[in-house]
Amino acid sequence: MDLLRQSESVMMKYPTGSSTALLPEVYGEKGWTCLKLLNLKALELQPDDSECNAGCAIALHRREMKVLETLKEGEAASSSPGGQP
Asked: InterPro entries this protein is in (predicted)?
């Protein structure tokens, strides 16, 4: 799922009441995505740089944990009566 769909999903699930203000979760996901992309680009240019490797590993781990959390929330919602948590 790409960043735009994730952002839209979070905004629909947790509306802010404002068309311009985003939730902290959305800002956080945007930040982690940017960090991941920047670290991946840096790794392409300097594959042996330990700081880039560490940064990329942290960003990818953080992203993976968020995906797993989202999947668990979806499973919990679908297994409850009426699809409601």
From this structure: TPR-like_helical_dom_sf (IPR011990)
Q: Does the pTM of the predicted model rise above 0.70?
A: no
In contact, 70 and 77? CB cutoff 8 Å = no
Structural domain contains residue 11: no
Domain region containing 57:
23-72
Cα dihedral 18/23/24/30 (nearest 10):
-110
Distance CA 22, CA 5 (A): 14
pLDDT tens-digit readout, 24-50: 777 777 887 777 777 778 888 888 888
User: What would you measure as the largest C-alpha separation in the chain, in angstroms?
Assistant: 52
Q: Of 19, 55, 18, which Cα lies nearest the Cα of 39?
A: 55
